[in-house]
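S.,

Sequence below, as promised.
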Amino acid sequence: MILAQMNKKEDGTFTGLFRSATVTCPIAIVPASERKSEKSPSYGVFARGVRVGAAWARVSKAGRDYLSVRIADPAIQSPLHAALVATPTGHALVWGR
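The prediction came back faster than expected:
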């Protein structure tokens, strides 16, 4: 299920409109300014200016770069795990079980 079509800005930030069955809002995935360790998130996830999650840069078994995204918000029953992947028209935030 595609949760958002996203565009990448020159500064590395991804922006789009997040849509689920219960929530619709602007979302931004912003590069982390400082990482304390290799396990620290590579990006912060923000909805309406509030941090709602984090993302980590990963490489798939097929050698493709993607972001592993975790979103936790009171409007969502449990943390949501998704992947931000490149598409022919930009990037998509994809949820899968």
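The CA atoms of residues 61 and 67 lie 14 Å apart.

Coffee later?
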